[in-house]
From TrEMBL:
Membrane topology classification: Multi-pass membrane protein
Keywords: Membrane, Transmembrane, Transmembrane helix
Designated name of the protein: Bax inhibitor-1/YccA family protein
Organism of this sequence: Bradyrhizobium niftali
A Pfam short name: Bax1-I
CDD domains in the cross-refs: BI-1-like_bacterial
InterPro entries found in the cross-reference section: Bax_inhibitor_1-related
Superkingdom of origin organism: Bacteria
Length: 232
């Protein structure tokens, strides 16, 4: 009887491990597709509009619309269908692509490509660490959130001060904050997995989790670009 119980427990563990891998793979696929869509839309916007959009008041719509959409998606995720949540995530990624086309006017294409791969390597390593570590990272959550608020406030202040020194400091702190959030969110997302979830619940979790990782990657990339990007 004990052998039967042991075999049953082993089978359950294998099934859960397989389910967790599938769940995480779906999240990373959504996140990667979102990043890819952002990159394509940014390049197309740059090619098709040139500096005209950058100088147009319409640019503020594309800057502010993603912010409104991400708040809406986060607030309504539990009431949306998985398909609707997924569609909104990709619309958000496309809007971010339009707003990030401004970077192609500021930095050289070679430096953007270089920093993108650096950010991807950092993100991958930190996400693997968050997934595999046995250390509980939940204690970092409050600290990282406070750091994020500090980065946002300092960035708003620097819009008026235009201080290169403060911009450098914000970028350094920002890299640390989003690096930490990548590992923290990966562990948190892993802990959210529940083999008993139905397809709708699992789909919603996958989308909101992909959004968290997407935001971490985009912000990590932007902070690194401010530090290591070559301006035109």
């Amino acid at each position: 009887m004990s052998n039967y119980d042991q075999n049953l427990a082993t089978s359950d563990a294998i099934a859960m491990d397989g389910g967790l891998r599938g769940y995480m793979l779906r999240i990373y696929n959504y996140m990667a597709a979102g990043v890819g869509l952002t990159a394509v839309v940014a390049w197309l916007t740059y090619q098709l509009t040139g500096p005209a959009l950058l100088q147009s008041p319409l640019m503020w719509v594309f800057i502010l619309a993603p912010l409104a959409l991400v708040f809406f998606l986060s607030a309504r995720i539990n009431t949306l269908s998985a398909a609707t949540a997924r569609l909104l995530f990709f619309i958000y990624a496309a809007l971010v692509g339009v707003s990030l086309s401004i970077l192609l006017h500021i930095y050289t294409s070679a430096s953007i490509t270089r920093v993108f791969f650096i950010a991807a390597a950092m993100f991958g390593a930190l996400s693997v660490f968050g997934y595999t570590t046995r250390r509980d990272l939940s204690g970092l959550g409050t600290f990282l959130f406070m750091g994020l608020i500090g980065v946002i406030i300092a960035s708003l202040v620097n819009l008026f001060l235009q201080s290169s020194g403060l911009d450098w400091l914000i970028s350094i702190v920002g890299v640390g904050v989003f690096a930490g959030l990548t590992a923290y969110d990966t562990q948190r997302i892993k802990a959210m997995y529940d083999s008993g979830d139905d397809e709708t619940s699992a789909g919603r979790k996958s989308v909101i989790s992909a959004l968290s990782l997407y935001l971490n990657f985009i912000n990590l990339f932007m902070m690194l670009l401010r530090l290591a990007g070559s301006r035109r």
